[in-house]
Design goal:
40% helix; globular; alpha/beta; 8-stranded parallel sheet; binds 6-hydroxymethylpterin-diphosphate
């Protein structure tokens, strides 16, 4: 089976890796078409950075950033459109405009999100995190990170299913309320999530857990490390990888897919 790639399109001034590069509509559209052409089957559009210390934005501002992009891409790009938001009102407007997937980094903390997805027949990515981007760095005490994340994802998936969501994808949330060691542990033990019975997504791309390794201090220096993390995740069961560098990742994952057979 071919691993799917979710290409990242941050329409934000302050995202940790690509902040400010695609905040203008023309450049955002160009990037979306490039991601699809390079092999992304999903484009994940985000209007609020979740890096530690990012300024939260209100839903009006978030919609002002993402809605024109979704409206312009709907029906014109081969990839599915995903909206990276934890606000049900933002998700709903984006689904009406042509998105078909909700990527919720709070893992349906607001259960209205599941109702919105069910009403529109949209897919949902349920990601694990604790606290908020501002507080999550201090919320990393787990007795067993895999067991606790798995318990949360299983519970939220059951709720989503009961509410009527048809397509559910689970994500352990690399770097979200996890130390670097815990992010590596999640990658190492990813196969333990497979008995939940849902496709797994991972998002290691250019994240700061890699900066604990030599030569990867800045996000710009983390391409090769991100590819290695993606391949390891896929060998351990990830079906979808969320990345900034689609072309390079497509190549690395082709090798992983060929080895898996
Ligand atoms: N990571 C980020 C944002 N959304 N969604 C899922 N499902 N999984 C992830 O690991 C994930 C995510 C953070 O990365 P990025 O969008 O590049 O940065 P920022 O939050 O600064 O915009």
């Amino acid at each position: 089976m071919t691993t799917e790639i979710m290409g990242i399109l941050n329409v934000t001034p302050d995202s940790f890796s690509d902040g400010g590069r695609f905040s203008d509509l023309e450049r955002a559209l160009e990037q979306a078409f490039r991601l699809a052409e390079e092999g992304a089957s999903i484009i994940d559009i985000g209007g609020e950075s979740t890096r530690p210390g990012a300024t939260p934005v209100c839903r009006e501002e978030e919609l002002r950033r993402v809605l024109p992009v979704i409206e312009s891409l709907a029906g014109r790009v081969s990839a599915r459109l995903s909206i990276d938001t934890y606000k049900p009102e933002v998700a709903e407007a984006c689904l009406r405009a042509g998105a078909s997937m909700i990527n919720d980094i709070t893992g349906l903390r607001d259960t209205r999100m599941a109702s919105v997805a069910a009403a529109h027949g949209a897919a949902v990515v349920i990601m694990h995190m604790r606290g908020t981007p501002a507080t999550m760095a201090h919320e990393t005490a787990y007795s067993d990170v895999v067991a606790e994340v798995k318990e949360f994802l299983g519970r939220q998936a059951a709720t989503a299913r009961a509410i009527g969501v048809g397509e559910i994808i689970l994500d352990p949330g690399i770097g979200f309320a996890k130390t670097a060691a815990q992010s590596f542990e999640l990658l190492r033990r990813l196969s333990e999530f497979s008995d939940l019975g849902y496709p797994l997504l991972i998002g290691p791309s250019r994240k700061s857990f890699l900066s604990t390794l030599p030569g990867m201090e800045s996000p710009a220096d983390r391409l090769e490390g991100s590819l290695a993390a993606s391949v390891i995740g896929v060998m351990n069961g990830a079906a979808i990888v969320r990345v900034h560098d689609v072309r390079q990742c497509r190549q690395a994952l082709a090798v992983a897919d060929a080895v898996k057979g």
